Amino acid sequence: MLALDKLDSAEIGRYLAAQGVLESETAVAVKALGGGVSNIVLRVTTPTQCMVLKQALPELRVEAYWPSRIDRALREAEALRIVAEHLPSGAVPEVRFIDKENFIYGMSCAPESATLWKENLLAGRVDVSVAAAAGRLLARMHAIQEPAVRQRFIDDEVFWQLRVDPYYNTTAEKHPSVRPVVSRAVDQMKARKMVLVHGDYSPKNMFVLPEKMDSAPRHGASFRGNDGVETVVDSGSRTNDGAGKPPNGHQ
């Protein structure tokens, strides 16, 4: 197995060959996808396929010190596979491989024709059916209630590292006047673990196609909250954490 502490474009061909994903002599084109601060995301194309590789960073690329567990990438990949069993075909990217040693996984690319939902909205292209489709997908994710899934994602440390401490707790510390209100919200999140939560279910993480919609994966899926799933909707959209388009909000 090839050890790879940090995804490197120059090593991608050799790395994927070592993973058994490509033949050793396969030509590859690599493009870094921006839009986020917590992962390395590379789009890899060959003469016959396209995939996106994602590796979690131990520290987010921001001014303040912001660490997070790197095994969140593995949780995200597993969440994608589980959610795919409950959503319409193509609603989430296909997980091509998982490298547990290096905390990397590969997924299918979104079609080149996909457009980012956020960009459509900013351009004034508003389609209510897309929002309705996104709502239906989210409802289906929240309806996943199998005990085994709940147990797998009950660990919510990454959710707190990425979604609660930097925002709720930091705000409460810096603004004592709102601390009681913020603390109540935090206590509520601690007490209620009801559904599997997509960590950033937003138009910036969803791609749209004429026939269906897709939502991008976010690290650390967990019951009640965390990052880590990608999704599709049935009215004109498809998302990807690194399809042919840079996934805003993704690393």
Write up this protein.
- This protein is an alpha+beta fold.
- It has a single domain, classed as Phosphorylase Kinase, domain 1 (2-Layer Sandwich).
- Helices cover 31% and strands 18% of the residues.
- The protein is built from 7 helices and 12 strands.
- The strands form 3 sheets. Strands 1-2-3-5-4 form a 5-stranded antiparallel beta sheet, covered by helices on one side.
- It is globular, with a radius of gyration of 18 Å.
- The C terminus is likely disordered.
In short:
This protein is of the alpha+beta class.
Keywords:
alpha+beta; 251 residues; disordered C terminus; five-stranded antiparallel sheet; globular
How are the elements arranged and paired?
Elements lengths: L11 H7 L10 E4 L6 E7 L4 E7 L15 H13 L10 E5 L4 E5 L6 E2 H6 L5 H15 L4 H6 L4 H18 L4 H13 L4 E2 L8 E3 L4 E3 L6 E2 L7 E3 L3 E2 L13
Antiparallel strand pairs: 1-2, 2-3, 3-5, 4-5, 6-8, 7-10, 8-9, 9-11, 11-12
Strand order of the largest sheet: 1-2-3-5-4
Percentage of residues assigned to helices: 25-40%
Task: Tell me the strand percentage band.
Answer: 15-25%
CATH class: Alpha Beta
Class derived from helix and strand content: alpha+beta
Biggest pleated sheet: 5 strands, antiparallel
Number of domains: 1
What is the N-to-C order of secondary-structure elements (H for helix, E for strand)? HEEEHEEEHHHHHEEEEEE
Unreliable stretches covering 5 or more consecutive residues = 218-251
Radius of gyration: 18 Å
What's the CATH architecture name?
2-Layer Sandwich
C-alpha termini separation: 24 Å
